[in-house]
Amino acid sequence: MTARATGALARNWGRLNGEGRLAGIDLARGLAVLGMFAAHLLVTPDLLWTTPATWLGIVDGRSSILFATLAGVSIGLVTGGPRPLGREEMAVARMRLGVRAGLLWALGVLLIVTGVPVYVILPAYAIMFVLALPFTRLTASTLLVIAAGLAVVMPWIQVLLDEAPLWWTPLGDELSAAIGWHYPFPVWMAFVLGGLGLARADLTRLRVQLIALSAGVVLAALGYGLDRAARGSGDPVMPTLWSEVWTAEPHSSGLLEVIGSGGFAIAAIAASLLVCRTVVVWLVLPLRAVGAMPLTAYTAQIVVWAMIALVVFGNTSLLTPFRELEPFWPLTLGIVAGCTAWALLIGRGPLEWAFDRLSKLIVPSTLTKRSTP
């Protein structure tokens, strides 16, 4: 190996494992991405916590909620972590996040155009990035209170929004896809602001990690426990506002899903951070490599899926026939291996690098200084 290659490997190793990087957040992102792979490519059973054979169902709905919560954590980290940036620095960070949101939305639309039969989360992700910008100067306690308020109130409003006549117009399906309504931002902002609040609480501290783990477990137990009790009372013959809200059904955006799966996401983030305080951090390096480039990994899955489906079926929209090819393990292991090799040999993920460079090109750090009289 040449001195240049050795130096590059050392730099990339330091970037992935350096003190300034939260390895546990990368691990949690990696788990969220692979969970979405499983939800897309495998037939998942209905989850029963007391039946291990159904535990694969844990990926259904929870992976995307974990991904959204981590979006809030990422926003918090790039805007100062436990101490929000100063006014001028925050202005630049917000504008760059706005640029990234636009790029995310455009990429999401392109992935939708491939025709792969998944609900692409990136358009919703982009909208939530923009909606989170006004909250980036708030404290951890304020953010967590707002997130809790949204979690309690918005599921009731979401039911009414889902019945709006707009969705039944000829353009309803296209609009729904373009704004990622399968991940409705009025409710899902609770997860993003919750993640932002965690970042402001300082996730590097052991005490914060332990409190987050405990709180997440309690919330998950509460949400899923109440859902189990409601199911035990029998389903109504006709859906009612109460039955549509009082549920933890995956992707329902019901109150109990928000509480239970939101708690699960918080617990998963905290557990990942705690695990990475141990020697296990080295065993999960491939998962951390995926989490270091989640956008690249997510996009690669859909693009490769589309290419395989076109070659085999001449059609990208067939879900069951594609699943019958049993693509999960080859595709997942290939992407994990590719991300690991890229992270060590090259560095940042290609899409992460491109988005960062474009946002800095469009919003230079000297922008606010030039505009100040």
Describe the fold and architecture.
The chain has helices at residues 3-17, 23-41, 62-78, 87-113, 122-132, 140-162, 172-178, 185-200, 206-232, 241-245, 255-275, 280-283, 285-292, 294-313, 319-324, 328-345, 350-362, 367-371. The chain is mainly alpha-helical and 373 residues long. Helix 3 (62-78) packs across helix 8, helix 13 crosses helix 16 (328-345) and helix 14 (294-313) crosses helix 16. The radius of gyration is 21 Å and the shape is globular. It starts with a helix and ends with a helix. Residues 368-373 have low confidence and may be disordered.
Rg (C-alpha, Å):
21 Å
Total count of strands: 0
Q: Return residue spans where pLDDT drops below 50 for at least 5 consecutive residues.
A: 368-373
Report mean pLDDT, rounded to a whole number.
93
Class computed from helices, strands and strand pairing: mainly alpha
Output the helix-strand order.
Answer: HHHHHHHHHHHHHHHHHH
Number of helices: 18
Strand content is: under 5%
Query: What share of residues is helical?
Result: over 70%
Largest sheet: none
First-last Cα distance: 53 Å
Shape: globular
Summarize this structure as a short list of keywords or feature phrases.
mainly alpha, 373 residues
